[in-house]
Structures are given as C-alpha cells and as structure tokens.
Amino acid sequence: MARVHVRCWQETYRGLMPDAVLDDPGLPAARERFWTAVLTDERYRGNRTAVAQRGDRLIGIAMSVPPLDGAVQWVRQLSVLYVVAAAHGTGAGRALLRAVIEPAEPAALWVADPNPRAQRFYRKHGFVADGATQTEDGVREIRMVRAAGSRRR
C-alpha cells in the first residue's frame, strides 16, 4: 500500500508538490508507518480501507474516515483514493470509491487544484466544489461535497 501511495503521489503531484518531498528517500518508510498505523491502531477503527488489484499487483488504494468536524452535513470524508496511472480508466477508482463510501452516504473530500482529471472523476460521482480551499503539503486543495441521494454512476 505504501509503495502504491508513493508512486501515485509521484505520478499525480509532480509539479504541484516540491520534488524534495516526492523524491525524499524516507517517503516510502513514512507511508509504510502511516498504513501500518491505519490498519492496526484502534484509533482508526472507524476508517474504511480498500485496495484494488490487477492480477497479483496492487493498483489502487482508498480510505474514508468519519467526519473530522461534527458540525458538517456529511457522514464520511474521503481521505485517500489513488490509482496508478497505468490503471486509470479501468474502473478501479470507481470500485474503490464505492468500497469506502456507500452510494447513499453524504460525503466530502479534498482534491488538489489543479487536478482536472480527479475533479472530473469526483463530479461524475456527484461531488461538487463548495468554495472551501486549503493548502496541504504545499498543494492547494478544494473541497468537494456530495449530498445524500446525489446522482452517481
């Protein structure tokens, strides 16, 4: 999972995130510690995690979490959804999204901006930008939300 996470960051964020972050030799170990904690620590019991495979190779990862703010209108927040570039367009992203957020659940996510491919994918699944922005790891992000019962494919 850590290797896919790092590979997808490098494929997706090159030019948006500093090369020093993407090429840091410690990044794979840091992502491995992250996923080990997510999958084993009781604190993350409410998370939903999924992987996509093609044959015996991992090609995608996803995770949703309970909302970080109790005053929001959604019940899940997508925190990770990455598919290796070679598997874009295969349906792996759609399957991962559905595995971690039920179709009827109102949800939110943060997506890099610009990242037109990802933003188009999320719009296709009923998410719309709500005007909120933030900067995470030097990357500008916009928040997208999906109300209960929004049209999804």
UniProtKB/TrEMBL annotation:
Pfam families assigned to the protein according to its UniProt record, in alphabetical order: Acetyltransf_10
One of the record's GO molecular function terms: acyltransferase activity, transferring groups other than amino-acyl groups
Source domain of life: Bacteria
Keyword presence, Acyltransferase: yes
Domain N-acetyltransferase: 4-149
Swiss-Prot/TrEMBL keywords: Acyltransferase, Transferase
Protein name: Acetyltransferase (GNAT) family protein
